[in-house]
Amino acid sequence: MKKTLLQVVLIILAIVLTYLIYDTVRRPIDFKKEKDKRYAAVVDKLKDIRKAELAYKDVNNKFTGSWDTLLTFVKHDSLPLVRKIGSLTDSMIDAGWTEDKALREGKIIRDTVKVAVLDSVFGKSYPIDKLPIIPYTNGKKFFLGATRVKTGSGVDVAVFEARAHNNIILNQLEKEYGQEIINLNEKSRVDGKYPGLKVGSLTEANNNAGNWE
What we know:
alpha+beta, 5 strands, 7 helices
């Protein structure tokens, strides 16, 4: 009887140990899968924010740190677009024609038209009102800021930054993956990096790069 009971206990312990080993291997894999899914969606949104900011700068010669201003611009403003009709042919080039001469003679046409920012940058059906919203967060917004900084050569440059912290991107995962999130943030701290995803910078001119690039 005692022998049978001991065997049962050993079997249970073996099962528990097997599960613990499996869980130790599984958890980082499952966390990475969920993190990568959310990161991919956030990166896509940050790329779109960058497109909107660059379009705003083309018109206003500066970036904006206001979501209201940026959304109003995309929804209601327009961008200049050069319409091109015709081009220099090989025979015209051989004859010494330049584009300026062809324009004066009416052989080619170049004029500027206004195109709605939303249509030009994103497409008419793009859900622009959701641009500030961080995916998977039930409505939380990206931080958005804009300023001007001086480069090492003393040039004054307009810059912007949009960002989301890991704690927000990975919200609702704390209960199951709390330690993995802590480890992820700690690694960023040790590496001197932002613990999340961002595009642009308010402290340096980084050519509007994302920290995932």
